[in-house]
From TrEMBL:
<dbReference type="InterPro" id="IPR016181">
    <property type="entry name" value="Acyl_CoA_acyltransferase"/>
</dbReference>
<protein>
    <recommendedName>
        <fullName>N-acetyltransferase domain-containing protein</fullName>
    </recommendedName>
</protein>
Length: 73
């Protein structure tokens, strides 16, 4: 998954809503896991992802990245 928000639309809940939509749409289509790579410096995005139930772990191939993942029930 990849979500990108233009700077003028940040801090308005757009990313939160889009992430929720991605999770629900994937679940409805039978997807079991969603996963994304995130720059570990992007703390705002990582916090939103955590709030929506995604788990964050170090990326074994690149110390600059983390893997964010959610198992969909």
């Amino acid at each position: 998954m990849a979500i990108s928000i233009r700077s003028e639309h940040k801090h308005k809940g757009t990313g939160w809503e889009m992430l929720g939509y991605v999770c629900e749409s994937a679940r409805a289509r039978g997807v079991k896991v969603i996963e994304s790579l995130e720059d570990r410096r992007n703390r705002e995005a990582i916090e939103i992802e955590r709030e929506q139930g995604l788990e964050v772990e170090d990326c074994p191939d690149d110390a600059r990245l983390v893997i964010v993942r959610k198992t969909l029930g």
